[in-house]
Each structure stands twice: as structure tokens, then as C-alpha cells.
Amino acid sequence: MKFRTLTPFASAAALCLSLPSFASSVGAPLVGTPFFGDPPDATHPWAIHDRNRPQPVRVAPGTSSTAQQPGQPPADAIVLFDGTPASLERWVSNRKEGGPAKWVIRDGALECVAKTGDIRTVDEFGDCQLRIEWAAPARIEGSSQGRGNSGIFLLGLVEVQVLDNYDNPTYADGFAASVYGVNPPLANALRPPGEFQVIDIVFRRPVYDGDRVLDPGYVTVFCNGVLVQDHTPLEGPTGHMKRTKVGPLPAKGPLKLQDHGNPVRFRNIWYRPLPPRAVEGGTDGQLSPAATQAKREQIAAFIRADATSMASGSREQAFRLGESLIYAPDAEIRARLERMAFDYVDEVATLPATDREARKAEILETLRVLRYATKHGLLARDFAPWSRLEQFIKDAGWDDAKK
After folding, report:
1. pTM assigned to the model
2. pLDDT lower than 50: segments of the chain
């Protein structure tokens, strides 16, 4: 069998397959060089510099806030409050009887009305990137926990403290931007009362397998661009005057804002859901051996389906099928490629000198692929076409190391 000569490694677009984890790459051209980086291993389904790995999703970034005006959220953000009455409909009273939120909108901000109770979102969500801006009253009243107090409750259970601590000492684990009762902030980065504080939170809930902790979860917080919670581990819900009880949290829950009796204002509230971590079915990072094997088989199936769109018997198709063996073995495909390699080397050996020179780049590229395959155990070290091609190139005097 001969390879039909095509432009080396020209590739068809990825086929639209029913593989959910490839959704972001459907229709995207392959980028990069195959047979390049170290192959997948027992806990990593992707090769190093893997051209089959989906490209990052494009997200148009938002804009920065100013003291006078909130910024625009990223294009994929889910907006929970944008200053309009319509967005207040996304909030309800957290009291047992429920009902509409009784806080008010003033100058584009959501202001707490004392004794009306906490409010929470209708939306429920889990792991997220959250932006929320808050301002304590410009008029300073009270001290310690009695001054500009509220709270941001992730899942309705884990509190990131809201408090006017610009010039107001309090207990450290109840300071503004603390994980309340758990971990003080690394710094006091607050602006003066009356000005909006920009709070960015990355939240990952704990992940359990029965009673076994797979990932403790964590909270990372920036206050006005300053890191104040650095990957702080979680143990469970936070509480007042009580130590956190270790245990799982629900997969989803509302965002809750606290009525602590102070007219704290909030604006520009949005979140972005985060993808699952490796321990809960994600495909990036170090996976379990079972999850890695399943993912590698899925990638191999994707590549083999893609190869069917290529000219039968072409180098392009052969190399694409060869890529699939990096992820999952297939005796039939391997035997087919081995036959094609023998035929290819036989063909090269019979080429006139001028034709060999014209196909020098192609031949050297084929040798590179065979070297990769033998180095990483896809082919035996004594695979005859590899050694024959090595010898042929040496006899021809080609310096493939510079190619």
C-alpha cells in the first residue's frame, strides 16, 4: 500500500461528535504539531502541548469600576444585580415566609433596610467567580461589629464578612473580608466609608466521597485588587461564636446578603460558574487512573472519527490514526499502520534521486514520527521500517537534526 501524498499534517476540522467534553473544540482546526510532547500517562489524559486539547473559550472581559460607576461584567457573567428594578426581582426575602426582597434601590445600589431580614437570590449555584461591590454608610456610627455590618453568604452558608473596618478595630476573624469565624484577611485594603469596596471571590465547595474528603474546598478573595484570602480551606458552614463543623456542603445554593441593621449598599453583583475540578469529573489536572483511561479512550475515538474525513491511505490519515494510538491501543489500527510503514519505506527506496530530494521534508517528517512512536513504545525498538529509514537518510547525507 502506498501513501497518497498530501501536504504533511494538513488537517480537516474536527468532526461534530456527541462528546460533551469536546464541545468547545467542535469545528475548530487543529493547532500545533502532532507527535511533539510527552504522551499521556496514567493520571494525565492529554499529551504535553497536545494539539487535540480544546482551545480556551473566548470571553470578552468586562470593564473596571470607578467610585462613581460600576464596571461592566464579562460577557459570560450571570448578572444578579445591575441597579435596575428588574434585577431586584432576582432576589427574595430569606425569612421563612419568603416573599419579595424588601430592600430598596437607591442611586443604582441595593440598600439594606433594617429589620426587613436577609435576602437571597432566586438563582442557586455552586463553584463560581463572584464579583460584588459594597459600601458602608458614609456617616460613621457605632464601633466594632456595630458599624457598617453585613455579610456575603456563599451557598447561603459560608460568610465573607462585610464590615466598615477602615478605622475600626474588631476581632480579627470577624474583620471585613474575613471568612467569618475561620480566617482573618491578610490585609486591610478598605477604602473610606461611603466608597464602594470591590470584592472578587473564587469559591470552591468541599467535595466528598461518602465520608472521605476528596477536596476540602476553598475561598480566595481580593478586596480592591489586594489578595486578602489566599486559597483558604473550608471545613463546612461558618457560624457566630461556634466553631465550624466539618462536613460537606450542598452542590448549589443561593447567594445571601445579611441584614445586620446597617444601611450597607451593594452594586454590580454577578458570577461566573466554574468548571468541575479533576476530583469531580473535570478533564484538566491530575485525574484518577480510571478517569484518565476513560478520557483517553474518548480522545482516541474522537481522533479516529476525525481520520475518516481524510483521504483513505494518505499520510495525513495514517498520522492521524497514529495519534489515536497515543491515547488508546487498537490492534487493528496498529497492524494497518505497520503495513503502511513497510510499504512507504519500500516506495522511498525505489524513488529516483530527484524524486527523493523533492520529498525530503516529507521523508524526514515521517522519520520523526517513527522515532516518536518507538521512543514512547507505540512501535517496537527493532521496528524494521524505522531502522531502514534511519539508514536510508544517513546514506543520503541528509542532516535531519536541522530540519
Report:
1. 0.85
2. 1-27, 400, 403
CA distance 135 to 185: 18
Which residue matches cell numbers 536541522? 402
Q: What is the pLDDT of residues 212-254, one digit of tens each?
A: 999 999 999 999 999 999 999 998 889 888 888 888 899 999 9
d(CA 185, CA 114): 27
Closest CA to 113 of 104, 123, 125, 122: 104
158 close to 126: Cβ distance less than 8 angstroms: no
Report residue 309 as a C-alpha cell. Answer: 474525513
Domain final residue, candidates 251, 279, 307: 279
Between β-strands 158-162 and 265-273, what pairing exists: parallel, antiparallel or unpaired?
A: unpaired
Report residue 377 as a C-alpha cell.
Answer: 513504545
First and final CA of the chain: distance in angstroms? 27
Please report whether residue 73 resides in a domain: no
Pick the last residue of a domain from 279, 299, 332: 279
Coil/strand/helix, residue 152 = strand
Q: Is residue 303 within 8 Å of 52, Cβ to Cβ?
A: yes
